Amino acid sequence: MSGYRFDRIKVLIVDDNLHMRKMLAAIVQAFGVTTIHEAPNGVQAWDKLRNHNPDIVFLDWMMPGMTGLEFTRMVRTSNDCPNPYVSIIMVTGYTQVEHVHQARDAGVTEFLAKPISANTVLARMTAVIENPRAFVRTPDYFGPCRRRRQDRDYTGPERRGTGTPKGHAKTSAQAES
Q1: Which domains occur in the chain, in start order?
Q2: Which long-range CB contacts under 8 A does 77-82 form with residues at least 24 apart?
Q3: Assessment of whether the complete model's pTM goes beyond 0.85
């Protein structure tokens, strides 16, 4: 078990499958989470997000009306969102590499493949707490930094050089030169 005080975390679980919502709720409750909100679709999830401002959102990919990707984009870009930085953990059976990339490019913080287990849920919750990802804003994207590896000991040249590809932000060092 983890040493975290999960009783201080507010969780929103969004899935059109009642069984999956209840299973995820039981898992996070077993870790000590006491404030759990549920929604069967993106529209109701948006209302819950705006009214309860959760710390972590567990989100299904495929739902009627609004997909998890559409919901994520709305969270990241809407002026009405109370917290565009909220951690979003995509919970899905769509595990092909292109789906992982689509989720990442929509602004998902972490990816959790179905079938889930208590250990994988705990691992993702711990990941968003222990390793919060910096957020990036470019003309085409706002969300967690999509780069996973950060080698602080790297002393080589910047990969982007002086020219910045479309959709990538210049670092402050690049902007000054």
Answers
A1: 6-132 (3.40.50.2300)
A2: 77/142, 80/50, 81/49, 81/50, 82/49, 82/50, 82/53
A3: no
Q: Which position has the token pair 């999509």?
A: 146
- With CA atoms as reference, report the closest residue to 76 among 66, 84, 88: 84
Quick check: 164 pLDDT over 90?
A: no
What DSSP line would sit under 73-110, residue for residue? HHHHH-TT-S-TT-EEEEEES--SHHHHHHHHHHT-SE
pLDDT in the model for residue 45: 96
Which two tokens mark 55?
């710390």
Helix axes 42-52, 68-77, angle to 10 degrees: 30
pLDDT of residue 139: 86
Give the CA diameter of the chain: 55
Nearest to 68 by CA among 34, 29, 42, 30: 42
